[in-house]
Amino acid sequence: MSDFFHWIATLPALVQIPLVVGAFVAAVAVILFFVEIAPRSGRKYTIIRLAVCVLAPLVIFLFLGSVLWAAAVAAVLGGIFFILDYRAKQGAGYLFQLVGFLAPALVLLLIGLVYPTISTTIAAFQNSRGNRFVGLDNFQWIFTQPTGIRVVLNTIIWVLIVPAFSTAIGLAYAVFIDKSRGEKFFKILVFMPMAISFVGASIIWRFVYAARPAGQNQIGLLNQLVVLFGGQPTDFVSISPWNTFFLIIVLVWIQTGFAMVVLSAAIKGVPTEQLEAAELDGTNAWERFINVTVPGIRSSLIVVLTTISIASLKVFDIVRTMTAGANETSVIANEMYTQWKGFENGRSAAFAVVLFVLVLPIVIYNARQIQKQREIR
Amino acid sequence: MSAVTPIDVPIDNATKRQLKAGERASERTLTKRTKKRLTSRGATIASLIIALVWTVPTFGLFISSIRPAALINTTGWWTIFQNPGLTFDNYSQVLKAGNSQLNLGQAFINSIAITLPATLIPLTLASLAAYGFAWMNFKGKNWMFIGVFALQIVPLQMALVPLLSLFSRGLTIGGVQLFAGLNASGSYTQVWIAHTIFGLPLVIFLLHNFISELPAELIEAARVDGAGHGQIFFRIVLPLTMPAIASIAIFQFLWVWNDLLVALVFADGEVAPMTKLLAEITGGRGQDWQLLTSGAFISILVPLIVFFALQRFFVRGLLAGSTKG
């Protein structure tokens, strides 16, 4: 395997794309071919199935650079799988097809998400070299250091402010432009930052915040406005504690478009009859909005809020690009990376676990909301 | 029989015209009224301000990127009419800027080389899995699907470091080497695999929403006609869900193109994408605005083109993920 990738890596970048994509498509085609012929009955097909069951694990393991006898064990397991499949309740070949469809994705998830998650959790309780258990020392280090506490606090500030503001602004904008002329165009304007990378957005806003000493021409838009109203130019990203809020604006700027589009679609789903009935009852626009529209889009509101909360908990790129965590702006995700770069694997893992614990309740809540919505439908 | 039946009233042409005009007028006010129902003057002003704040920074970046370096650093971009001057030097300069291993022009190629396979591979694998979950029956299917869904909980940060050591050192259990390691640092391989894995849970979930809603009769009919699961997937499910796949593909594309964290960990040296190099330039040469503005604009150009060209799919994909159950 590594030989193949080594050979590929020596080629020009743009040649690699068709080669890798071609190899991948060929592999998928082979899977689909065997899946297609698997359920057919007859001796010929049984032999083909047996051959694939035994040879596929063998080849894959050898390909991965496994030792010979481990590959042999895999082949034997493949043989056992063949027998299981042969006696499957739904008919021979059914399990075979199932594995063809599900195994590639599930195996990758096991290797790339399940195993690393367990591994990181263990590492969080070990020292930086990962050879000795240190109990809760890493967590203690985070929560007793002033900088560590600051990092956690900053993350909490992010998760409190970003969802609230982006949802509020997005909702207001969606309501204001609803059914107005040029609605589509207005939507695009606010939606556009969604397509911009966090790094790009950070540079855009660094430029807005750029400061020149008083007396010189300002090149940053915000400082120009400050000067225009008679203030002193300030370096917004370096004055603690307000700099965190100036970083937060960047994420609000990005996420508002998301909130706006989703909520706008939800608003259009609110039955007009209800709004008209409320109007006949003599309510004003604000009452109609609070009592009819908001309850009507409640589930969408929750999904938007939770989605943005998760995004702001994991925020990394913005902090990394704008301040790299300097001047007390660091957040958990950034600190996790910084510690890892500093060869403090234990602390890095501990930060990751703290992040996981913070994300967990929001995701569970979100999943239950989706489940509920499903049951209603 | 209803009490009121339409009858032919003998009226002259003039009256007819008058009536029609009235009808039209009443219609016009009606539509106007529904249009204006929620918008007042304050709301209009507020939405104009929001629209401005959301576009002016990007616009300023673009204007600055085509101004001469000396002017960018001494005058604001809004004074472009007092201090005129247009140049593309910034772009040619930034394409050559970078570190010892790579410049931004090469990083642009890297971004493409990383993004295309890292979009195609997870979508294909996920559509296979989504089909399996949607149209095949097996014990524990629901639990397994919930398990895949739940993997979205795991923040990337949990998975990065162990996955990297898996790539570089392989997997050895009890002294038995199961996996020799990719030994592929400095190639795109590990970035592709990492992005594939991290994208899978969400993509499987979203595609499952679409694939499971195809009419069962269709699948059944194909089966009666003698198609196996392989053919059903390739000839029926795949073409029918193409619009959904396209809209989710846009997200995966943007996600990979815009990603910084995975690139920082997995793409080292010569294979770094633009985001990583730009972040580096921002850190090291943070006051060279002629480089930053043009560099940033190059990096947001591709997503913006994708966004404007495929906007319909973009919105549909977004809504599939959030409002649809």
Automatic annotation (TrEMBL), chain A:
PANTHER family: ABC TRANSPORTER PERMEASE PROTEIN, OSMOPROTECTIVE COMPOUNDS UPTAKE PERMEASE PROTEIN GGTC. InterPro entries: ABC_transporter_permease (IPR051393), MetI-like (IPR000515), MetI-like_sf (IPR035906). Gene3D superfamilies: MetI-like. It is found in: Cell membrane. This is Sugar ABC transporter permease. Keywords: Cell membrane, Membrane, Transmembrane, Transmembrane helix, Transport. The lineage of its organism: Bacteria, Bacillati, Actinomycetota, Actinomycetes, Micrococcales. One of its GO terms (cellular component) is plasma membrane. It is a multi-pass membrane protein. Residues 152-366 form the ABC transmembrane type-1 domain. It comes from the Bacteria.
From TrEMBL, chain B:
One of its GO terms (biological process) is transmembrane transport. The chain crosses the membrane at residues 42-63, 108-131, 143-167, 187-211, 232-254, 291-310. Keywords: Cell membrane, Membrane, Transmembrane, Transmembrane helix, Transport. Residues 108-310 form the ABC transmembrane type-1 domain. Its main location: membrane. InterPro entries: MetI-like, MetI-like_sf. It comes from Lacisediminihabitans profunda. CDD domains: TM_PBP2. It is a multi-pass membrane protein. SUPFAM superfamilies: MetI-like. Belongs to the binding-protein-dependent transport system permease family. GO terms for cellular component: plasma membrane. PANTHER family: ABC TRANSPORTER PERMEASE PROTEIN MG189-RELATED-RELATED, OSMOPROTECTIVE COMPOUNDS UPTAKE PERMEASE PROTEIN GGTD. It is found in: Cell membrane. This is Carbohydrate ABC transporter permease.
